[in-house]
TrEMBL record:
CDD domains assigned: RNase_T2_euk
UniProt xrefs under InterPro entries: Ribonuclease_T2_eukaryotic, RNase_T2-like, RNase_T2-like_sf, RNase_T2_His_AS_2
UniProt name for this protein: (Mediterranean fruit fly) hypothetical protein
Keyword rRNA processing: no
GO biological process, one term: RNA catabolic process
UniProt xrefs under Pfam families: Ribonuclease_T2
């Protein structure tokens, strides 16, 4: 029974320490929040430029800076932020195929600025493609591998209807093709080192094929996960692994006005032979988190329910808006430990 007492003392100390670490990591969270605010600020500036210029040129030169605004979470904040690839190093190991939940994308986009409106697919349970991104393990990118490449919408004539349906621009304000141009120039030109993806038509057709093959609404639906539900990230992970047999990466955005995490994207990884592979080792905001029974790669809150919304939540714009990207660090780890221990 002496042992038992020691156990409880250690346990008490552990809890006490985690509470302190919690305070410390909250501070870390606050400071990284400031960093991401800076990012938001940058994109907003671009946005205003865009709005001022809206009436005249929708020019190629604008395209690069404005194209990714609706998806600023991917590009400016999480995935390929920061370091630019060194010229010449365009090597990559695998392809990330990303599907997004348009309701969340729309919500995020619309909340960012009061002028934003979005176009949602008509169908109810309908995931759309965000992109096909060649990625080097442990690195960001590569991206923009061919500086002289340009984007020719006409090359996609044959698959235009499908592209509009399955790879749509959620931001309804953009000129047709902006989103695809961005995806092609940034990611497609790098994927093009593979013969099967070495032109626009091949690249986008492959994305469409993968969507059909890895139909996200079915993968989740088969596990009883439908829109308008709340699920733990572990439940999502189990559903995905059951169907794919490989680790995906699961992405949320966190709305701290409502204190709700929304399911935003699910990324799956493929080899150069187009076989599914684990997304382990892919850089970005998602990190591997162990749970009893496996590992989940995510930026979502491990112990909180994740909302899979069926409708875009009503506007809450009057209040101070504050998007925050889930901070994955000690804080999350501790949350997990506490959840696991308690
Ligand atoms: C596109 O931008 C260039 C350089 O900024 C400008 O010379 C050209 O007139 C613009 N084209 C259109 C269609 O606005
Ligand atoms: C880059 O793009 C241009 C224009 O499409 C093309 O002619 C050229 O072959 C590409 N370069 C490489 C290295 O793929
Ligand atoms: C899911 O969570 C949201 C946000 O907390 C809540 O508004 C909603 O009622 C929940 N839905 C279900 C089906 O439990």
């Amino acid at each position: 029974m002496g042992q038992q007492r020691i156990f409880w003392v250690i346990f008490g100390l552990f809890l006490f320490t985690t509470q302190w670490l919690y305070v410390i990591s909250s501070n870390i969270a606050t400071s990284s929040e400031e960093t991401s605010d800076e990012n938001t600020l940058t994109t907003n500036t671009e946005l205003h430029n865009n709005n001022n210029n809206n009436n005249n040129n929708n020019n190629n030169s604008d395209l690069l800076s404005n194209e990714f605004l609706p998806f600023s979470n991917e590009i400016s904040n999480e995935y390929f932020s920061g370091e630019q690839e060194e010229d010449g190093d365009h090597e990559w190991d695998l392809l990330i195929f990303t599907q997004q939940w348009p309701v969340t994308t729309c919500y995020h986009w619309r909340e960012e600025d009061s002028t934003h409106a979005c176009l949602l697919p008509d169908k109810k349970e309908f995931w759309t493609i965000h992109g096909v991104w060649p990625t080097k393990l442990g690195h960001m990118g590569p991206s923009f591998c061919n500086k002289t490449a340009d984007f020719d919408l006409d090359q996609l004539d044959k698959i235009m209807t499908n592209l509009k349906t399955y790879w749509p621009t959620i931001d309804g304000e953009q000129k047709l093709g902006h989103f695809w141009a961005h995806e092609w120039l940034k990611h497609g030109t790098c994927a093009a080192s593979l013969a099967q993806l070495d032109n626009e038509l091949k690249y986008f057709t492959q994305g469409l094929e993968w969507r059909e093959k890895f139909l996200m609404s079915n993968i989740l639906g088969n596990a009883g996960i439908h829109p308008d539900s709340n699920n733990t990230v572990v439940a999502l992970q189990n559903a995905l692994v059951k169907s794919l047999g490989k680790n995906p990466s699961i992405h949320c955005i966190y709305d701290n006005k409502r204190d709700v995490s929304y399911l935003e994207e699910i990324r799956i990884c493929l080899t150069k032979q187009f076989e599914l592979t684990d997304c382990d080792g892919v850089p970005g905001d998602a990190v591997p988190i162990d749970y009893p029974g496996g590992t989940v790669i995510t930026n979502c809150h491990i112990s909180k329910p994740i909302h899979y919304p069926s409708n875009v939540p009503p506007l809450l714009r009057e209040q101070e808006k504050k998007w925050e990207f889930p901070v994955v660090n000690t804080y999350k780890l501790l949350q997990f430990l506490m959840w696991f221990t308690l």
